[in-house]
Amino acid sequence: MRHLYLLRHAKSDWSGEFASDRERRLAPRGRRAAATIGRFLGAIGQAPDAVFTSPAVRARSTVELAADAGSWSCDVEVVDRLYGGSPEELLTAVQGADDAIERLMLAGHEPVWSESVGRLIGCAEVRMVTAATARVDLPIDRWSEAKFGIGTLVWLCTPKTLARFARGGAAQESR
Questions:
Q1: Has this prediction a pTM greater than 0.85?
Q2: How far apart are alpha carbons 171 and 164 in whole angstroms?
Q3: Which of 34, 72, 89, 139 shows the greatest Cβ crowding within 10 Å of its Cβ?
């Protein structure tokens, strides 16, 4: 069994100055959200063994902030095809991962992330908001065996949901 995590980059700053879309930075809200996701994965013992990230500044920063906040100790590799790519290119990146990796995270962008999660688990409609993270389990021994339609969505969480739980919102909502 392999565990694939798809992390959409956190909220970016549209008001800041940037020369190209790849250079857009995170907004303060995005920086907080990235840290929240990192702490969550660290706290539940599901920090990734390796991360492939889009070359966009907002994706790389999301990974860096999450890793720092969650005390992850994993390799991070910039993969050009994860910027402006397709679900097929995402799958190609997954298939090329080292088999020593059990928990692989990919950090990138919409609409590819939502579509990819949906296709990995069959034919589902999934919405990945900023900084959302999905865990998809793949019943494979080697990453090269990854394909669409065989995964199981174990969970999909957002920083907003995690904040609600931290404030005790889950107990209040169940009443």
A1: yes
A2: 10
A3: 34
